[in-house]
């Protein structure tokens, strides 16, 4: 059957070769090394190549890994006689030689390689139909703990042999959460993050997975597949933090000393310790069994607890799981003796202190743990120095360290100071501390003046304040620089006004009598002074100040002629501005300390408004006063002694003038430029403003305006705009070309009301370019600037003459019919 097929195929090829000369080189050619790729399993038999022989070669020979599949015909036709199988042999190495008629090799052997190309003709197969594995609780997610493995005979370099693993099912599955995952290429199975956290053997110790494998990388529908069952047991995690450890401090046991241990779930882990806080020394270590040691004795007083971590790592130094907290507490032993206070305590006891009085507390320290027997202290006095007048003068309370007087009050003459030695003890140790006790004096001595009378002293009354006038001295026999010996001097008589004071030198109790306020012959000419010397501390019972603590002194004050004195530097008075001449507006009274008569006069009465009575100091108005000129009138009143040295003093007299309505209203400015262009084409108007010099209310003035006479009402009209402004309007257009003086009455509405009549000049004139213009010579007046320039230029000389005349006439007629150019800002000219 095989021979038949082969024959059939060869016939086809022969046909093909004869017909296809053009394909020479692809399917036929001379003998040379060649490589062919042929898919496995395809054709049962096939021509591969036709070698062409060249003389003297007449035939070909095939050798090598033919496996009985490859053959060559004498005419050079290379073919395979059955289907190839890559899984049997992927590459066939053949040699072809060309032989001559005698069978001698004339060419070759030439290597011919046939590569068998893969087709997906093998299905993946799991090596086991069932897998079993186990995993520790809390294992690191993604770290493989087992694998499944399938094989596929197809070429692993092609998709045909690429396998794809997948977990198809997990049983049981809680809340649809996958605890396991598989590496889709390698088949390695590990925990997911959820699995690492949630797996718990006490809840569910075993799981079953169905795992599938596909070839073609699992990416096509046409892949082969296989599946297997995986049973997984969950084992307890023994990587747990140990219980806190207690270590007794200052241990004499040999070190290092095992204190606790940690264990990784599998052997072979690498253990280490990690400090949590940076310490000067870290007295712990761990060995590769996971046993933890303390390496040296600890000291609770240095550090009473430690926290650090134990870490387990794999061979590559990757942490196998979370670090574990290790707590170590250092247990106290009584290894510290009590210590005395850093400076020796000094207690003070007064001479007359009662027995049993507490006089101080000794506080010693113990570094051992507080509130334990190791740090509770006992106090005991073991020595007293000096033992005079007797031993055991003091006692100390055993637990509190409070000292008391035990037998009697102390006397400084016996001993000014005692030194006590106190034994302070805890459970095991004794420490000696020292305490000093000073016996302090009591105030049983009074200050005694060196003399009882400091004699007479005469001073002028103008002796400067701050002068020291006397030094006094008393002494006190009590202990120096205490409240019992310090002296306070007081003046108990002769200085009711407090003109004197006494400063005391703290070193030697010298008293300095000083003038604090000016002396005054006129008030007190003789001071009969009594000094007293006292202590700030009260005297002890039974001792009293006696006459030796007092001293006398007489101070005579002599008179000095002094200037008169006003009681005030400035006197204010107020009067209405319209007071009649001769009205009394104020009075100024000075006194002479020596009682001399005084004469008064005024200084600075620049307006001559005032007069003063030289004898009484009364001040009168001497002229009409005017608030509008000066609202506060300031003068000085001079008081001069009559006779003697004629000393004088001045004081201010300020007279405030209150307003009365004594000024009629007037126009706020001179309205000289009001004009209308003549002839008037329509009625026009101007605005005028009034003012008043009197003090106005906060609302401002409230003037009313009226025409000066009734007859004017046919031509003019005046209307009020507001309190200060009014509008003057023409009533018709029939005005002559001349100046009209319009009388206007303005009333200020005050109390009493005052009225002023003003005459407002209004000019009617011909206009050029809106300005008042008068033909030269026609009417007297100053030519309008600008408007008349042309005229001026042509008749310059004539004007020169006329101007002279004009000026003269202008002066004569001033205020009557003067004519101005239209420069007034208030004007609103009307164009013709
Ligand atoms: C699976 O088996 C193949 C063939 O026996 C082997 O080459 C491969 O290394 C195995 N895979 C693993 C992950 O051990
Ligand atoms: C296979 O796993 C890799 C890495 O875990 C992933 O990136 C890839 O998407 C997976 N392939 C498929 C088809 O799920
Ligand atoms: C340890 O105890 C001994 C007495 O038991 C003491 O002398 C020593 O000072 C102690 N060491 C420390 C560090 O406390
Ligand atoms: C002090 O003055 C009084 C009275 O003038 C006089 O009697 C006395 O003798 C004077 N004393 C001295 C020490 O001058
Ligand atoms: C007291 O001390 C002051 C200043 O040190 C000195 O000037 C004065 O003379 C002393 N007084 C006596 C009485 O020693
Ligand atoms: C005052 O008392 C002291 C003793 O405290 C004594 O020395 C002195 O003489 C007494 N002086 C008078 C005046 O009694
Ligand atoms: C002067 O004024 C004072 C009040 O300043 C007054 O007591 C005295 O009587 C007045 N004297 C005369 C003379 O008016
Ligand atoms: C009064 O009226 C005049 C003109 O209208 C104006 O300028 C002025 O400000 C007014 N005065 C007050 C107080 O309103």
Please tag this protein with its features.
Immunoglobulin-like; binds 2-acetamido-2-deoxy-beta-D-glucopyranose; five-stranded mixed sheet; 4 helices; mainly beta; single chain; disordered N terminus
Structural summary, described in words:
It is a single chain. The chain is mainly β and 832 residues long. The model is unreliable at 1-24 and 776-832 (pLDDT under 50). It starts with a helix and ends in a 19-residue tail after the last helix. The strands form 15 sheets. Strands 48, 50, 53, 54 and 55 form a five-stranded mixed beta sheet that branches. Strands 1-3-6-5 form a four-stranded mixed beta sheet, with helices on one face. A hairpin with a 5-residue loop joins strand 36 (500-504) and strand 37 (510-515). The chain contains four helices and 55 strands. It has seven domains: 2-117, Immunoglobulin-like (Sandwich), CATH 2.60.40.60; 125-235, Sandwich (Immunoglobulin-like); 245-331, Immunoglobulin-like, CATH 2.60.40.60; 346-440, Cadherins (Immunoglobulin-like); 448-558, Sandwich (Immunoglobulin-like); 570-658, Immunoglobulin-like, CATH 2.60.40.60; 666-778, Sandwich (Immunoglobulin-like), CATH 2.60.40. It is flat, with a radius of gyration of 68 Å. One 2-acetamido-2-deoxy-beta-D-glucopyranose (NAG) is lined by residues 587, 589, 616, 618.
